[in-house]
Amino acid sequence: MNPNPLLKKLGYSNTDRLVIVHVDDVGMCQASLQAFGDLWEFGTISSGAVMVPCPWFRATVAWARQHPDVDLGVHGTVNSEWDGYRWKPISTCDPATGLLDEEGYFHKREPAVQSGADPEAVRVEVEAQLNRALAAGLDVTHLDTHMGTITHPRFIAGYLQTLGQARLPGLVPRLDAAGLMKLGLDEDSAKMFEGLIQQLEAGGTPTLDAVDFMPLDNPEGHIELAKQKLSALPAGITHFLMHPAADTPELRAITPDWPSRVANYRAFMSREIKDFLKNAGIHVIGYRPIRDVYRK
User: Fold this and answer.
1) In this predicted structure, what is the pLDDT of residue 186?
2) How far is Cα of residue 149 from the mean position of the Cα atoms in its chain?
3) Where are the domains of the chain?
4) Hey, is 149 helix, strand or coil?
5) What CA–CA distance (Å, rounded) separates 283 from 262?
6) Neighbours of 182 (CB within 10 A)
7) C-alpha triplet 176, 288, 194: angle, nearest 5°
8) Contacting residues for 79 by C-beta, under 8 A, at least 6 apart
9) pLDDT of amino acid 181
């Protein structure tokens, strides 16, 4: 595939390696906001995304107002995955939309949403989350997706429509048909989306060369693992995500993967990772410059 045209628009060469060190799930709970704030001030992350339907959304916006330089987007959320800590759509209470489970919350897992939710209802809900963030005064830098749910073939058109209307970058990977088929698309859909991605990129829509992440299934060795992953970044722009959280009783009660979230946090609060990012020959950027180039 040809070099990403966004590189030169941002002032880099076609061989440069750029990484967006991204925090997911900001505002999911107090521990997620604490970790994001600490890491932003420590300087080892470059972006994050807030979960608008979640209880700590308002506190996240209040924190962002005190840090006007923060790079913070909206984490388009149509799942509520935990057993004892749930959230609902903000656009509707109508079960006919397919957004709600039998308890009146978002479905827990992706398949239930992707098979049963009305695509227009998903688009309206994500747009409502974006509009609520904007109305609250958040300078939204991008719009991504919680658990990848809204990038499903049934929902991707609505997601791209919302991105285009708001002139925001999002998680739009530069994948060919083979790469898209690895994500679960059938051959015909993969070829269609390959052409669509090429058209979007030619029209100026920001795209990403790679997506990688820190694991949530093993809390061991996160400093070394992060260094290995970041060292292996390809040329182009990579969205590198994690789910850091401070170790609190609330976090431990919410999710069984809390040790890995705490490990994400501690690894990127380390001087070792901070020095590595400075000296690894990679360029750490946020979504704000990408958004600003796009809007030009």
Assistant:
1) 75
2) 11
3) 6-74+139-173+208-295
4) helix
5) 25
6) 10
7) 10
8) 106, 107, 108, 109, 110, 113, 146, 147, 149
9) 74
- Give the residue from 117, 178, 127 showing the smallest Cα distance to 152: 117
pTM of the entire structure?
0.95
Angle, vertex CA 81, rays to CA 75 and CA 85, nearest 5:
100
| Residue among 166, 242, 237 nearest 207 (CA) | 237
Supply angle C-alpha 113, 48, 200, rounded to 5. 65
Tell me the H-state helices in the chain: 6-9, 30-42, 57-65, 110-116, 119-135, 156-166, 177-182, 187-202, 222-231, 249-254, 258-268, 271-279, 287-295
Shortest CA distance to 233 belongs to which of 284, 198, 194? 284
Quote the pLDDT of residue 291.
Answer: 98
Count of CA atoms in the C-beta half-sphere (13 A) of 293: 19
Structural tokens at position 200: 């979007």
Q: Token match 């051959």: residue?
A: 187
User: What 3-state DSSP class applies to 208?
Assistant: strand
- State in Å, rounded, how far the first CA of the chain is from the last one: 25
CA distance 42 to 84: 32
- List per-block mean pLDDT (blocks of 10 residues) for the chain, which spans 296 residues: 92 98 98 98 98 98 97 98 97 97 97 96 98 98 96 91 96 84 74 84 93 96 98 97 98 98 98 97 98 95
Q: What is the largest CA-CA distance in the chain?
A: 53
Residue type for position 295: R
Q: 192: number of CA atoms within 13 Å, CB side?
A: 8
pLDDT at residue 286, rounded to an integer: 98
Confidence at residue 51, expressed as pLDDT on a 0 to 100 scale: 98
CATH 3.90.1150.10 fits 6-74+139-173+208-295, yes or no: no
**Cα separation, 202 vs 5, whole angstroms:** 9
Q: Residue 74, SS3?
A: strand
